[in-house]
Amino acid sequence: MEMREKILIVEDDESIRQMLEKILRKEGYDCTLASDAAEARQCLKEQSFDLILSDVIMPGESGIDLVGHVIEEYPGTAAIMVTGVDDLQEAEKALEKGVYGYVIKPFDKSQILICVDNALRRRKLEIEKQRHLEDLEELIEDRTAELKESEEKFRSISDSAQDAIIMMDHEGRIDFWNRAAQKIFGHGREEALGRHLHTLVAPDRFFETYHRGFNRFRDTGKGPAVGRTLELTAKRKDGTEFPVELSLSSVSIRGKWHAI
């Protein structure tokens, strides 16, 4: 019979230890036996296990402390406690440490097999979930690196341009301002970002015309200046006016219209 998951059985009572082994081996599980926590720790060092099935009260280190060690040091190993009625309070403590569950002596075959099967199923789901999370984190890291590279390329290109490249968001505020824009208009990047574009660079006499057309642009991305090249007048930081040639494009970002 092909062996299934590997189970470490830790039980100081030899008759119970052998009975557990017989039940689980018959179902195809690969079993390793340990008579106490010290022997179990040695087994854990030598090989990996899918599940540990441990008695609560044993000579030397208790099963509670043992499974606490397993959960901390071997997070991929599920844990089940085997306990007597008198030890239920101790078994409840084990649940707080992350043990899947416990079975009460005297137990029957079906009780053991159901508990083991459920614990191993949950372990598989947790491993799969962790794998998906790791894949997602790796994907996010890759996409973030790609985005950062794209942003660096765009900024490098835009900063080497002789023309001012400016982006206005759906509220009319500046969210991109290249190096040429700083030279032409006299406002530094940090000074310009977040400011209303037309308040910053357009003479006051053009505000009324701007406001009439902006609402339509914000809703539709369209306007009389979009897709055209216009000769206009702008103002510098010191208030002086000068002629500019404006080429305006619209772009939708997350459902909001921006102007470039």
Short description:
By secondary structure, this protein is of the alpha/beta class.
Mean pLDDT: 84
* H/E topology pattern: EHEHEHEHEHEEHHHHEEEE
In total, the number of strands is: 11
What global shape is seen?
A: rod-shaped
Continuous helix count:
9
Describe the biggest sheet? Answer: 5 strands, parallel
Using only C-alpha atoms, the radius of gyration works out to 35 Å
Low-confidence stretches: none
Q: Strands of the biggest beta sheet: in what spatial order?
A: 2-1-3-4-5
Strand content: 15-25%
Our measurement of the CA-to-CA distance between the termini, rounded to an integer number of angstroms, reads 69 Å
Helix content: 40-55%
Structural class: alpha/beta
Explain what this protein looks like in three dimensions.
By secondary structure, the protein is α/β, with parallel strands linked by helices. It is 48% helix and 21% strand. The strands form four sheets. It has a five-stranded parallel beta sheet, with helices on both faces. Strands 6-7 form a two-stranded antiparallel ribbon. Helix 3 (63-73) packs parallel to helix 4. The two termini are 69 Å apart. The model has no long low-confidence stretch (mean pLDDT 84).
